[in-house]
C-alpha cells in the first residue's frame, strides 16, 4: 500500500489522474501549477506543491490546495469531476476556490469524504443546486461558498460562509 518515500501509492496515482484531468480541461496553466506532480515512483507526493500529508509514517494526503488553477485560463462552463477525490480517505481540507467551476459532473456528487472538515468553494460560479452534491460530507465544519451565485435562505449548522 505504501509507495516509495512515505507516499501512499493509491493516493499518488489518484493525484496523477487528477492532474491529467485538470490539464486536459484547463491546459498549460494547470500543468505549470502542478509541475511537481510527476509520474515517478521515487517522487514523494507528500512533498509535491499544493499537498500536505498527515505525517511521514502514514503518508496520507490530508490537505489539497487546488485553488487558482483556472484563474488565468478562464475556461468557461468548467465542471469538476469530484469522483477523482475518492482515493483520499484521510483528506481533511480541500481548497477549490477561484476556479470558476460551475458545478460537478452530473450524478457524480462528492464522494463520501468522511474526514473532510474544511471545504473552500469560494469565487466559483456555483449556484444553489450545487449544494445537493455536498450532502455526503458529514464531518464538514467549515464551508466557504462566498462569491458564488447563491441566493435565498439556507439552513446550516456549523461555520458556513456564503459571502
Task: Please summarize what this structure is.
By secondary structure, the chain is an alpha/beta fold. It has helices at residues 9-26, 28-33; strands spanning 51-53, 61-65, 78-80, 93-95, 101-104, 118-120, 142-144, 159-161.
Task: Write a structural description.
15% of the residues lie in helices and 17% in strands. A six-stranded mixed sheet has the order 1-2-4-6-7-8, with no helix packed on it. A two-stranded parallel ribbon has the order 3-5. It is of the alpha/beta class and 163 residues long. Strand 1 and strand 2 form a beta hairpin. It has helices spanning 9-26, 28-33; strands at 51-53, 61-65, 78-80, 93-95, 101-104, 118-120, 142-144, 159-161. The longest helix has 18 residues, at 9-26.
Keywords, separated by commas or semicolons:
163 residues, alpha/beta, two-stranded parallel sheet, 8 strands, 15% helix
Q: Report the strand count.
A: 8
Shape: globular
Query: Quaternary status of these chains?
Result: single chain
Judged by helices, strands and strand pairing, the structural class is alpha/beta
- Stretches where pLDDT is under 50 for at least 5 consecutive residues are none
Percent in helix: 10-25%
Strand fraction: 15-25%
How large is the radius of gyration? 16 Å
Strand adjacency order, main sheet: 1-2-4-6-7-8
Number of helices: 2
Span of the ends, CA to CA: 41 Å
Mean pLDDT: 87
What can be said about the biggest beta sheet? Answer: 6 strands, mixed
Write the H/E string, N to C. Answer: HHEEEEEEEE
Amino acid at each position: 500500500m505504501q509507495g516509495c518515500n512515505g507516499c501512499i501509492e493509491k493516493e499518488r496515482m489518484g493525484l496523477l489522474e487528477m492532474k491529467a484531468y485538470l490539464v486536459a480541461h484547463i491546459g498549460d496553466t494547470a500543468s505549470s501549477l502542478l509541475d511537481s506532480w510527476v509520474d515517478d515512483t521515487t517522487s514523494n507526493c507528500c512533498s509535491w506543491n499544493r499537498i500536505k500529508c498527515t505525517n511521514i509514517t502514514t503518508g496520507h494526503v490530508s490537505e489539497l490546495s487546488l485553488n487558482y488553477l483556472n484563474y488565468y485560463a478562464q475556461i468557461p462552463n468548467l465542471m469538476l469531476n469530484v469522483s477523482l477525490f475518492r482515493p483520499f480517505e484521510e483528506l481533511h481540507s480541500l481548497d477549490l476556490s477561484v476556479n470558476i467551476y460551475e458545478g460537478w459532473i452530473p450524478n457524480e456528487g462528492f464522494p463520501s469524504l468522511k474526514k473532510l472538515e474544511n471545504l473552500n468553494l469560494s469565487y466559483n460560479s456555483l449556484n444553489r443546486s450545487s449544494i445537493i452534491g455536498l450532502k455526503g460530507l458529514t464531518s464538514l465544519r467549515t464551508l466557504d461558498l462566498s462569491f458564488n451565485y447563491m441566493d435565498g435562505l439556507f439552513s446550516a449548522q456549523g461555520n458556513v460562509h456564503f459571502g
